[in-house]
Structure prediction request, 237 residues.
Amino acid sequence: NIACLSDIYVLSIPSFLELKNPINIFYISSDSTNIASFNHRLIVISGENSKSKVIEQHIGTELSEYFENTAVSILVKENSKLDYYLINECSKKSNSINSIHADIKDNSLLNFSTISLGGLLSRVNLGIDINGTQCECNVQGTSIAKEKQTIDFHSRISHNLPDSESSQLQKILLTDNAHGVFAGKIQVQHGADNTNSDQLCKTLLLSPYSRVDALPILEINNENVKCTHGSTVSDLN
Prediction:
């Protein structure tokens, strides 16, 4: 993304501001028959004691063929709350990579939700560093794929300081020859006492030709923690 960067956008939410309506960010592709590449970077700063909701939506028409490589950097400052949504409705011919990194400070809350529907190949790389105490982070995701789609979700939640909580729930629905991937890692670093974290991936296969690779991972370097992780895969009779 940095090597081919075309545009940088900065969204700064002032301290002590509570927004009632969400901020909507759209990436829309056209009907152009020329294969294109997009490399955008978004920086989101949630000011101290602020509350806001941001919706990032990627939309593509069926005739558009492109490669999208976007990156988002999120800073959640002290005592702030941010609800962030990432929606993928790219075209059937597109390939997309969304890389997101979030830095969470003291007494803050981040709710991160993803919905992946489009794209021939789509991948989300999510990295969250909890660099504060009394923090909470919730990640929820839904992926629906059909035909020959591949939907890939990689996440890393790192607890770097004590007294914080995180949870992750990923649901995947696959049919036809679709392929789903989930690789989620929870890291508890040295000194991150009283960490409470859970992670779960649920997959439903609606076709005998659909496939999922689920890899829930725990990396714990501390004793006084409570962490769980799991994965379920099922089909219909």
